[in-house]
Amino acid sequence: MAETLKKGSRVTGAAREKLAADLKKKYESGASIRALAEETGRSYGFVHRMLSEAGVNLRGRGGATRGKKAASV
Fold first, then answer.
1. pLDDT tens column, 2-39
2. Residue 6 phi/psi, 5° resolution?
3. Distance between terminal CA atoms of the chain?
4. Distance CA 71, CA 73 (A)
5. How far apart are CA 51 and CA 19, in angstroms?
6. What is the sign of the dihedral through the CA atoms of 36, 29, 16 and 51?
7. How far apart are CA 25 and CA 51, in angstroms?
8. pTM of structure
9. What is the rounded CA–CA span in Å between residue 10 and residue 24?
10. Can you tell me the distance from the alpha carbon of 37 to that of 56, in angstroms, rounded to the nearest whole number?
11. How far is it, in rounded angstroms, from Cα 41 to Cα 6?
């Protein structure tokens, strides 16, 4: 889908819904917003807004967490 979009072009209607669904699937599979922005040639803000519109529960900052550290004695 990303290849058919010109940078800066307005995305509306069915194309917007398809792009949102594609971004949602990739984000939920572990891709970062920055990686999706680079892949689609769009800004971070655009991708963030599309994911929000698609109802995605966005991850917190900082990447993957490793669980709680063991308490040092």
1. 455 666 778 888 999 999 999 999 999 999 999 999 99
2. -85, 145
3. 54
4. 6
5. 10
6. negative
7. 10
8. 0.73
9. 19
10. 16
11. 8
